[in-house]
Structures are given as structure tokens and as C-alpha cells.
Amino acid sequence: MIAVRTMSAAPNEALPDIREAERYLGYGKNQPGDDERRMISECFSAVSAAVSYRCVYTMTDVSRPRDGVLDLGFGNIESASLYRHMSGCGRALLFAATAGRGLDMLITSLSSVSPAKGVIADALGSSAVEKWCDLIEKRLLDGVPHVFRFSAGYGDFDISWQKNILEYLSANIKAGIYTTDALMMLPTKSVTAIVGIKTE
Asked: Which domains are delineated in the chain?
């Protein structure tokens, strides 16, 4: 049995980044107008109140059965991009994190009333879960040399591995995170990630 642990955070510990959300919305270097700013501010308050941060994680050894293949405990992953990314890493933090079902409900509710607010809330929700992932790394790996997190779907690391990661972590039972048959994660603002820990 692997040692799987859970973690949570208060909503104000991982607030959405408005500038990041604006980038998701396509503003780039441009500034939103007054009406857009007002909607963003309203949605920021709603999203910040709706999040419910949960995480399930473990530390695992990294083995290399052969060139281009990694084993983190849940199967042989054939991925050249992940293999290169994990160079020099003998251990890894493996986690699944979510901003919660309440955020999905809020986005759906806002979308039915105002499509624009639904899109804004969705962008803020994406920023919120990324901030939660940043906090997880800070809590668990502060001062520990590591590479940036890598998720299924990056490069040639197939998205289908999300299902294996969630099953390995018992994420459905411990944090309410699962995938549909179409490999969509629920709650939608959820992330699985591998963070290589430098040992060389």
C-alpha cells in the first residue's frame, strides 16, 4: 500500500489571479473596459467564495525500465517528453487537486443568466486551481530542488494516464475527483500532476 495523504486549504489561501484570468480571456496586453472590469470583480468575489480546495498526494520513486519509459508505481509510461523532463529526478510528488464541485455549479449558474459572466468565472476558476497547485508545491517542496509540474496531456504524455493517476491515488474516494469515459475530469477545475524531485 502506498502512503496517500490528503490536504485542503481555505479559499483565501489560493485566490484567483485576475491578470492571469484576463490572459485566459484573451485580453493579452490590453485592458478590459469598465463594464468588463465590473463583471470580473463580481465574478472574482463569487468564485473566491465557491472554491473548496482538496488534494490527494503521495511521494513515489521514479524508475526507468528502459530508455524513454518511466515507472512511477502505476504503470510503464512511454513518453519521451516526460522522460526528458524527469532527467535527474529519482523521486516525484504525484498529486490530484481540485477547486471543488461548488465552483462547477457556480459557473453553470452564472452561464445560464449571463454567458459573459460564465466565461469570466470559468477563467477565474482555471486560475484558482493553478494557484492551489502552486500552494501544494510550496507546502510540500519548499526548499527542495524540483522541476515544474507536468500533467497528462503535455507533449506525448497521453491524457488517458489521468485515469491511472486518479485510481492510484484513490482520488475519487479521498477527494471526489474522477474522470468520465471521455476522459473529462470532474470537478472540471481539477488537475493531476507529476513534480520531479531532483536527486542528481
From this structure: 5-198 (3.40.109.40)
Examine the pLDDT at 30 and tell me if it is beyond 90: no
**Rounded to the nearest 5 degrees, what angle is found at the Cα of 49, between the Cα atoms of 107 and 43?**
50
Indicate the pLDDT class of residue 1, thresholds 50, 70 and 90. Answer: low
pTM reported for the whole predicted model: 0.94
